[in-house]
Amino acid sequence: MNAALEINALNVYFGDHGALVHAVKSASLTVAKGASFGLVGESGSGKSTILKAITGLAPQWNGEIKVEGRPLGAKRDRNFYKTVQMVFQDPYASLHPRQSVDQVLSETLYLHGFRDIDDRVNQLLQDVGLGPAFRFRYPHQLSGGQRQRVAIARALAPQPDILLLDEPTSALDVSVQAEILNLLSDLRAAHGLTFVMVSHDLAVVAHMCDQAAVMQHGEILEVLSIDAMRAGQTAHPYTRTLLDASANRVA
Amino acid sequence: MSTLLDIENLWVRFPTRNGIFDAVRGVSFSLGRERLGIVGESGSGKSMTGRAILRLIRHPGIVEADHINLHGENLLAKSERDMRKVRGEQISMVMQDPKFSLNPVMTIGDQLIEAHRLHAKATKAEARKKALEMLEAVSIRDPERVMGAYPHEMSGGMGQRIMIAMMLIPNPEILIADEPTSALDVSVQGQVLSIMDRLVKERGMGLIFISHDLNLVSQFCDRVLIMYAGRIVEVCDANRLHEAQHPYTRGLLGSLPRFDAPRPRLEVLQRDPSWRDAPSVEGRT
């Protein structure tokens, strides 16, 4: 079995009986081990919701989610979080404003049962390209790019195999985006990670991924390789529109 | 081209505990009936430049300039009372996120009607008609329903179109749009931009379009100012942005992932301290 992640007929709901929103409708996808998979679509299309359902942040789901061959139940155990970690969109909101970088990383490491915390914090900071000088800083003393590096370090702390990236660079400047994307590529090569990346920016997904699913109104319209996308071999007209909206840009 | 707005040597300063921080450092440019883009990273002073024109920098921030002339009249010499007449009637501003710029506890109709009646002596019925007209002008399909709705019932794209409608009610000559589409999806972005484009063309307005998105600016504007560390480092025609000379502009362009030209690694911008100290380029035509 070499699929890192398998999703079959996944449905996700929000709200209750009166106002039930069917956010993801019968979605299926397979991500091979070591691959980088993109989810694209407009806001409200359900791409982030799929990531949330995987990590257990959207509890109302049915269908099948398999991580490294093991189906997930209603609850996620610690072993799951040692395998799958998530990086969120806004580094300004995802770090505790009153905890230093050291506290954030140490706590995560402690909860995952590591006891050589001191060495590991230094190693994590080095991995994400921050020096030891950043260890005792608070989030407000960091730039957006540095914060996102800390968020990535936190996700790497339990030594996961799969990283779920929810718009990891859309809150950042293009120059900083380039640094973070390069960092993510390097980390994937160094640690043999599998990426599932959500982005509304087709160019970013095309740069980072080898395969992508196009979503609209909670449904996966098609799954296609980036090469096919570049060549314009799309099966669904919506993919075409999305391509036209992003590709007629001159840099 | 007739000049609407002319700015000479604009500085925006903030006193801090560690001395004075200069957010904008001696910027000069002019605006005609055109679409002028201002691009740069966060912290480059582009939003501050936009706000300083309308004198929207709050205390303790300081705005200084040799002049900010609107039709030859210096806005800096005006009283706060006169300034209020300029805002909206002559120069309007659209902010980044409609969620924060619409009043959450007033219906959209009431907000539009209020905006109109503040500027024109109109009856409620006239203002209502005008509001409906403006909603139609920004391609809102069901204006009657939207008039009675609250901002939280609107999507981001609709919220931003409503903001644009509100800004256009007093029929200003200049529209300053500060990242008007950054919070929106690519597909919706296109709609909002084409609406703005049409209105600018039809009404002969001047538009200052502030954005961090180089692609967008190169497509949408006529002329682009590139700002770095509070100064203008380069001015060029928008359709020739890809031929830009300054290493900063080149670096920004190089750091963009390209859909049509894949490469294993992105270039990372190497900043040269001398860019900070180079004198500001004049952005006049």
From TrEMBL, chain B:
A GO-annotated cellular component: plasma membrane
SUPFAM superfamilies per the UniProt record, alphabetical: P-loop containing nucleoside triphosphate hydrolases (SSF52540)
Subcellular localization, as worded in the UniProt entry: Cell inner membrane
Record family assignment: Belongs to the ABC transporter superfamily.
Domain of life: Bacteria
Species annotation: Phaeobacter italicus
Name recorded for this polypeptide: Stage 0 sporulation protein KD
Gene Ontology BP terms: transmembrane transport
All residue ranges annotated as the ABC transporter domain in the record: 5-254
InterPro entries the record matches: AAA+_ATPase, ABC_Ni/Peptide_Import, ABC_transporter-like_ATP-bd, P-loop_NTPase
PANTHER family associated with the record: DIPEPTIDE TRANSPORT ATP-BINDING PROTEIN DPPD, OLIGOPEPTIDE TRANSPORT ATP-BINDING PROTEIN APPD
CDD domains: ABC_NikE_OppD_transporters
GO MF entries: ATP binding; ATP hydrolysis activity
Chief localisation class: membrane
Membrane topology label: Peripheral membrane protein
Protein keywords: ATP-binding, Cell membrane, Membrane, Nucleotide-binding, Transport
